[in-house]
Design goal:
The protein has 221 residues and is mainly α. It has helices at 3-15, 20-26, 31-52, 61-65, 78-87, 92-101, 108-116, 124-134, 147-155, 158-171, 175-189, 198-216; strands spanning 74-76, 142-144. It has a two-stranded antiparallel sheet.
Length: 221
């Protein structure tokens, strides 16, 4: 198995725990490869569960399909929202009332927060409704965000680089394989609609790396 295949398979195992046995069976792995990948995936599960408990109810796939769950890739742009609201000659309270009339549970304080602080919890369907009320397009009041944008600040820290080196040493992985595994862990840790908390992400990664080091009898740097 080459490096790219290993990376893709690890990401599938972490992202699809309910199909893990089928994925491993179909992958035609050697015994050592299957043990290593299974250990990585199970350690990832344990760290996530210890930090967050049971999966949140807002991971309902039907709700996600309908655009009712906030996603990190698309967020309401606070400055653009303010600009378009003023263009439509609406006050903050008027916008909240119009959205409530459309069946959304939106308070004046919500709109104020979207414009002044954080709007990352606004789901795509609500962004669409806001655009309709303001008689504009969703693209003009939202911003697309890539995974690179989300985690670039974390990856640039000295602690992340130290964790990456420890991970490589503990499991004998190449740099790219180790980076893929740690990035997958960060994706699993971030809640939908929330800004990634660098300290929380790094703490979760440190717990994961330390657990693997202990199981492998490897001392951390």
């Amino acid at each position: 198995m080459n490096e790219d295949d290993y990376n893709r398979l690890l990401a599938r195992l972490i992202g699809n725990p309910e199909h893990r046995a089928d994925i491993l069976r179909d992958a035609a792995l050697s015994g050592a490869e299957e043990r290593d990948l299974t250990a990585l995936a199970e350690t990832s599960d344990s760290v996530w569960l210890s930090a967050h408990g049971a999966p949140p109810l807002n991971e309902d796939p039907v709700a996600a399909m309908l655009g009712l769950i906030a996603v990190p890739q698309i967020s309401l742009d606070s400055k653009a929202l303010t600009r378009q609201r003023k263009r439509a000659r609406l006050t903050i309270s008027e916008l909240a009332t119009l959205l409530t009339d459309r069946g959304w549970n939106v308070q004046t304080s919500d709109v104020f927060r979207w414009e002044s602080r954080s709007a990352t919890d606004v789901p795509p369907a609500l962004i669409q409704a806001i655009a309709m009320v303001l008689q504009t397009s969703p693209e003009l009041i939202s911003a697309a965000r890539s995974r690179e944008d989300q985690f670039s600040g974390v990856r640039e820290t000295a602690l992340f680089q130290e964790l990456l080196e420890r991970w490589m040493k503990a499991l004998g992985l190449s740099r790219s394989m180790a980076l893929t595994a740690l990035e997958s862990r960060m994706v699993a840790t971030v809640h939908r609609g929330e800004e990634p908390d660098p300290e929380q992400l790094l703490a979760a990664l440190d717990t994961l790396v330390s657990a693997v080091e202990e199981s492998q009898g490897t001392e951390s740097i």
